[in-house]
Amino acid sequence: MYMPVARSRPLRPAAVPLALGALAYTAWVVEVVVSTGLDPIRTYVSELAAQSEPLGGVFRTTDLVAGLLVLTGAVWGLVRHRPRAPWTTLGWSGLALFGAATAVDSRLPLSCTPTADPVCAARETAGLVPATHTAHAVSSSVAVFGAIAAIVALTVAARRYGHWPLLARIGPWLVIAELAVTAWTLAAVAAFQSGHGTWLLGLGQRSQVLLIAVWLGLFAYDVGRRQTYEAGRGA
What we know:
Blueprint: H1 12-24, H2 56-81, H3 86-106, H4 118-125, H5 132-161, H6 165-193, H7 201-225
Helix pairs in contact: 1-2, 1-7, 2-3, 3-5, 5-6, 5-7, 6-7
């Protein structure tokens, strides 16, 4: 049972970096109005930040900023609030992992665009691209894992412990949608790597990262408007 006590540790300062991080994480949507030369239906989001792309530096910077902002908010939640409930601790830790991995990911850009450039794809298959391609795949996977862990755990915490009522209502639907588009993205990546087309890879991955940003913005809003209290079992 969630029972607030007199002493509280406010989480509201965490809301600002989390909200700004969510905004920075959606910088790629400018491709709707700015011509990048990449097909958003077929290409990886991270290809926008490739070293071969004219706007690559801009997207690498926004990814770095997004990661550092989310990491800052997550560390505030862990250090200032010091949650004791497993789901809450796991959620804030997942957010910290997501932020850190996203920042690292921005420093490990692709050298070219494999889904758009057949020469790049052939070089990647032959192992003739820089090691950053493999490192980027690892850091991207870690970032998504951290994001999904946070989305699931903090949504469960919202419903179980009485935290964040808006997230408790809407979060489960976002969890279902995020897991569905993640499965789609993984299947599309497997199809592309085995030479069976892209399976709308770009659309799937963009849906995946957009839902992460939407959930993060929703969580930041809920954190910003409420005071989370220390409790024996619920905090």
